[in-house]
C-alpha cells in the first residue's frame, strides 16, 4: 500500500527528501494538496526542479484553503517542478487564464492554483510550486 502523502511544510529538510541528488528530479510522487483528494499530479522522476519568478503565482491563495495559505504567507516561491510537455502530467487542470498566464489546478477537486504555464515562454514549460503540493514516498 502506498504511504500517505505529506505536505511540503511538514517535511524535515524537504529539499533533501523530494529532490533526487544529481538529477534534480522529483524523488516522490507529486499529489494534490488537499487531504481528502488522492489525485496524482506528477509521477516520481518525471519533473525537474527549477527556479523561476514566483510572482506570477501571487494570486488568490484563498482557494488553497486557509491552512496552506498560512504556510505560504511571507514566503517567496521560487522553486518549481518543471515539465516541458503537458502530456507528462498524470493529471492536471487549468483554472483560469490571466493575461498570457494559465493557472494549473487539481484535475479532480479543482483546487488551485498549484502552478502556472506562461504561454509567452519558449520553449514551453509547465511549473508546479514545490510548496503547493504533497509528496508520496
Ligand atoms: Zn485535488
From TrEMBL:
**Keyword annotations:** Guanine-nucleotide releasing factor, Protein transport, Transport
Species whose genome carries this gene:
Circinella minor
Biological process according to GO: post-Golgi vesicle-mediated transport; protein transport; small GTPase-mediated signal transduction
Which named protein is this?
Mss4-like protein
Which InterPro entries does the entry link to? Mss4, Mss4-like_sf, Mss4/transl-control_tumour
Q: Which GO terms describe its molecular function?
A: guanyl-nucleotide exchange factor activity; zinc ion binding
The record's Pfam families line, in alphabetical order, gives: Mss4
Keyword Glycosyltransferase among record annotations: no
Q: Which GO terms describe its cellular component?
A: cytosol; membrane
